[in-house]
């Protein structure tokens, strides 16, 4: 299908042909997620590392490319999932839109707010849909926590404490993540974006101001640690600490509300605290939960009338990350720029 067929007909199709740009680690999750969806097929895979594209494409019987423009020009595709290094996101979205292909863009949407705006405009002008891979709302435990908060049973959210620790050094992930030009930033851009997304999804609010600091470890060109305070609309405060020392990894979120609290934990699952009682609502399910999130994201992208994670939403996350960098550089409180 090309854009002339209109956005609305896309979600009614049951033979959607997807192309993958980038055949690295996250692309493997899309392959796993798509395997459970008979209505769509991955029919082409592109990577500058042709052997990586070949390895992913072979069991799918998909075509292999090492140039995304050649893949787009060959036709036979309805949509693309772009999982390339961050600074390539905007030019690749422009190429996809020019070819009439719908775009599911991995997070972070782009490395600057200006690039996010360009991507939104070019997709709108070309009549293709744009969805962003900020997938926290599709993670089952986050979804359940957001529903509880939305129900009002705990009262208004007041403050969030967010703690992430992951290994973040050149031995732990591909080299481009440590190249400021390609990655657009370090741990805050890559991991911190999930924290911002999660806080926004849980509360239904947006980050409006940031006071933060970042640090780089010797010999690494991007920041490896970030901490600070964010204010969300609705007068909610988020305190975050995202560090690179984490082995074992940590991923803990606490939301304190007027009448109770929720805690989401990578190891402990979902807990609710109310009236002096602690109730365990959900175990963590690890890899299965991640694949479920990717699958539901694909269903939302291809199967709903309008994707849930719009370009404007992706921009809001990039704007909050940018505000962290501006705040750290100027040592001032920064308002987010929408
Ligand atoms: N949603 C999530 O939970 C999640 C998890 C991991 C990564 N990501 C995001 O997914 C994207 C990819 O991350 P990754 O961990 O898979 O990285 P990766 O390095 O494993 O994969 C990226 C791939 O892109 C390829 N590539 C580079 N330049 C290219 C070009 N010009 N054309 C085609 N392919 C090209 C690389 O060779 C590599 O195979 C990033 O945006 C990252 O932030 C999201």
UniProtKB/TrEMBL annotation:
Gene3D superfamilies: Dihydrodipicolinate Reductase, domain 2, NAD(P)-binding Rossmann-like Domain. Keywords: Oxidoreductase. GO terms for molecular function: nucleotide binding; oxidoreductase activity. Residues 142-263 form the GFO/IDH/MocA-like oxidoreductase domain. SUPFAM superfamilies: Glyceraldehyde-3-phosphate dehydrogenase-like, C-terminal domain (SSF55347), NAD(P)-binding Rossmann-fold domains (SSF51735). Residues 16-133 form the Gfo/Idh/MocA-like oxidoreductase N-terminal domain. This is Gfo/Idh/MocA family oxidoreductase.
């Amino acid at each position: 299908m090309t854009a002339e067929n209109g956005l609305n007909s896309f979600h009614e199709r049951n033979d959607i042909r997807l192309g993958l740009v980038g055949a690295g680690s996250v692309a493997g999750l899309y392959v796993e997620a798509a395997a459970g969806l008979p209505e769509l097929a991955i029919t082409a895979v592109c990577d500058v590392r042709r052997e990586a594209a070949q390895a992913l494409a072979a069991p799918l019987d998909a075509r292999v490319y090492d140039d995304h423009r050649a893949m787009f020009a060959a036709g036979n595709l309805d949509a693309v999932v772009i999982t390339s290094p961050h600074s390539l996101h905007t030019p690749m979205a422009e190429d996809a839109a020019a070819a009439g292909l719908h775009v599911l863009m991995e997070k972070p949407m782009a490395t600057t707010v200006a690039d996010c705006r360009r991507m939104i405009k070019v997709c709108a002008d070309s009549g293709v849909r744009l969805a962003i891979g900020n997938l926290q709302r599709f993670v089952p435990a986050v979804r359940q926590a957001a529903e509880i908060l939305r129900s009002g049973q705990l009262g208004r959210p007041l403050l969030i404490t967010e703690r992430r620790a992951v290994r973040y050094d050149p031995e732990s992930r591909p080299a481009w993540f440590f190249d400021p030009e390609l990655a657009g930033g370090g741990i805050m851009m890559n991991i911190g974006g999930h924290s911002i997304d999660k806080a926004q999804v849980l509360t239904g609010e947006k980050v409006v101001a940031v006071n933060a600091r970042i640090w780089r470890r010797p010999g690494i060109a991007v920041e490896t640690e970030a901490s600070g305070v964010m204010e969300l609309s609705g007068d909610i405060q988020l305190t975050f600490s995202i560090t690179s020392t984490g082995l074992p990894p940590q991923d803990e979120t606490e939301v304190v509300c007027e009448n109770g609290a929720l805690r989401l934990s990578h190891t402990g699952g979902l807990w609710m605290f109310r009236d002096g009682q602690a109730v365990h609502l959900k175990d963590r399910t690890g890899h299965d939960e991640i694949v479920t999130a990717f699958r539901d994201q694909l269903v939302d992208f291809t199967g709903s009338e309008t994707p849930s994670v719009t370009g404007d939403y992706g921009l809001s996350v990039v704007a909050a990350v940018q505000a962290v960098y501006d705040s750290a550089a100027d040592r001032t409180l920064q308002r987010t720029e929408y």
